Amino acid sequence: MSNLLAGKVGIISGALNEESIAWKVALKAHAEGARFVLTNAPLAMRMGEINKLSEQCNAPIIPADATSMEDLEKLFSGAQEHLGGKLDFVLHSIGMSANIRKGKHYGELNYEWYQKTLDVSALSFHKMLAVAEKQDAFNEWGSAVALSYIAAQRAFLDYTDMSQAKAMLESIARSYGQRLGKLKKVRVNTISQSPTKTTAGTGISGFDAFYEYANRLSPLGNAPAEACADYCISLFSDLTRYVTMQNLMHDGGFSTTGISEEIVELITNAKQ
Hints:
There is one protein chain. The protein is α/β, with parallel strands linked by helices and 272 residues long. The chain has a single domain, classed as Rossmann fold (3-Layer(aba) Sandwich), CATH 3.40.50.720. Helices cover 47% and strands 14% of the residues. The chain has helices spanning 21-31, 42-47, 50-57, 69-83, 98-101, 111-134, 160-184, 207-217, 225-236, 261-271; strands spanning 9-13, 35-39, 87-92, 138-148, 187-193, 247-250. Strands 2-1-3-4-5-6 form a six-stranded parallel sheet, sandwiched between helices. Helix 7 links the parallel strand 4 (138-148) and strand 5. The longest helix has 25 residues, at 160-184. It is globular, with a radius of gyration of 18 Å.
């Protein structure tokens, strides 16, 4: 432990189980000396194991539906009350698509579900930051980080409406990053992570094949969840004070690689 976050306090959302990136971020933040509040939607809490994480990190849980302004106001005010002051970091690790869960292809999306996808997966980040601004909840040089995916820029089969949600999420980070930077020197960034074997990730049709494809294409291989957690910690820390309004690729080089020897060999062998 290097105490990189010693004295810092914040909110970590979205920890469902030990496979969750948010779960690993919480463990790393705790090890680096941070104190924080955990939060998730009541339904997700019933499905997951967040109480176990709460005990490990000595972190209280404040349930909140991230689409509800009322819940978020209680979350941010409650977190500041418990932690004894304003916040230094917030992690947004929230995403949901009923269309993906129900196997809807892009041409037959249920538009009510589509709107829910956008609300849960992207607008919730805007709502979090708006509540934080209203309550003046951030310390100067605070940091807000949201987890994104390269489907915000590229078309991927079976990612359907989540692609638009991630694009919106990244746009919100830029716009609110400009606003909060001027108001309070608060940084706002997104991390575009490799395909990761979380509960949400593995629920996407064809995930295993794409995971292997990305792993073979990326010069460094897929970035594991633990490494993504390390990256989040670096963005919470004072080492990245002047990084803001960025979508940061954390994907082993996948996003800038055209083709790899492994993919060429795979295609060549398949044709023989």
